[in-house]
Write a structure and sequence with these properties.
two-stranded antiparallel sheet, 15 helices
Length: 342
């Protein structure tokens, strides 16, 4: 199909224009949709969940309509808000930053230098001897591996998030994400590269450690249960993941004590004092329960978003990239840190 399209364009356009169009597509258009979480399944299910919430909790019987549903899910006041527009710009620029600045590969290489997997395997062999198991893992082992890897991955994300709120220098970089004054699914990508690199490093170390342990018992290899290339548990959770950064207060009801619902994460972005340092989790609520940072909001609970006292510092793409370095430098040179906001 692709070759047919190329042949058609070549027949109607100058070859140089065809080549230029290809460069524009692969260099400009394709990177915009390179994020794995922007997946049709996640978008579709999030839209269905938002529509269900509209019909069940927002619209009255006589006021239900497709037009009303669309306006509720995509309110102009939010999607055309200056903060949302800044998110769109930042997202575009960030795609190019990560395309041409291989931060992920650098962090993965740094984690590999620590020899986490090799060290754990060596320790297990030193204590228990070389593994004599040569059979393939059964479905129970695969299911357990999938769960444990997901727990390790999720804990690493929670711990990294916790550190970014608790350590003043790291908070300066995490402020970029919390500076959003309205939330749209694109707001999830308003994150500073330093913030993302630290979290990615912790996730890599955690998953490497778990993989090393299971690799010792199953030298022939063991893999996770996946759906469409995603870990099964993560895939199911992300079905409504786009609502985490939205105005739709979607809750899991009593299961909020097991999984972090979109409404719980929305409250995490609150600038109100009673919501400071709450709901650091991503998939499981367990870590916040253990740390005493769990906060399950009421369905009608309202809150202000962003960083009201510092809003002017995060109005442009340039500020989102460089303001954290300015703030971190001031802290490192002796300025007393302000209390971190959640």
């Amino acid at each position: 199909m692709l070759e047919q399209v190329k042949a058609f364009l070549a027949a109607w356009m100058d070859p140089q224009l065809v080549e230029l169009a290809g460069k524009v597509y692969w260099g400009v258009v394709a990177p915009l949709f390179a994020q794995p979480t922007i997946h049709w399944a996640f978008i579709s299910c999030s839209l269905v969940a938002a529509a269900a919430y509209y019909y069940a909790c927002v619209a009255r019987n006589g006021e239900r309509s497709l037009t009303g549903c669309f306006r509720y899910i995509f309110p102009k006041a939010i999607y055309a808000h200056p903060s949302a527009v800044l998110d769109y710009k930042y997202y575009v620029v960030t795609q190019f930053v990560f395309r041409y600045l291989p931060i992920g590969k650098f962090v993965a290489g740094l984690a590999a230098v620590l020899y986490v997997s090799e060290g754990i395997r060596w320790l297990l062999e030193a204590v228990f001897g070389e593994s004599t198991h040569r059979g393939a893992p059964g479905w129970i082992a695969i299911a357990v591996y999938t769960l444990v890897v997901t727990l390790a991955y999720d804990f690493a994300r929670w711990f990294g998030h916790y550190l970014h709120h608790r350590i003043p220098v790291l908070w300066e970089f995490h402020k970029v994400h919390h500076s959003a004054e309205v939330l749209t699914p694109i707001s999830s990508f308003r994150a500073h590269p330093v913030d993302q690199a630290i979290e990615f490093f912790l996730r890599t170390v955690a998953v490497s450690a778990v993989s090393a342990v299971f690799g010792y018992f199953y030298p022939v290899g063991i893999t996770m249960v996946t759906i469409m290339g995603f870990g099964a548990i993560s895939f199911i959770f992300h079905l409504v993941g786009h609502l985490r950064h939205s105005h739709v207060p979607f809750s899991f009801g009593p299961f909020d004590r097991v999984f972090v619902s979109p409404h719980m994460h929305q409250l995490h972005h609150s600038a109100q004092r009673e919501h400071y340092d709450k709901n650091f989790g991503f998939i499981f609520s367990l870590w916040d329960q253990l740390a005493g940072t769990l906060y399950i909001p009421r369905q009608d609970e309202k809150f202000i978003l962003g960083l009201p006292d510092e809003a002017e510092k995060y109005r442009t793409v340039r500020q989102l990239y460089f303001q954290p370095f300015i703030g971190a430098a001031r802290l490192l040179f002796g300025e007393k840190p302000q209390r971190a906001l959640s």
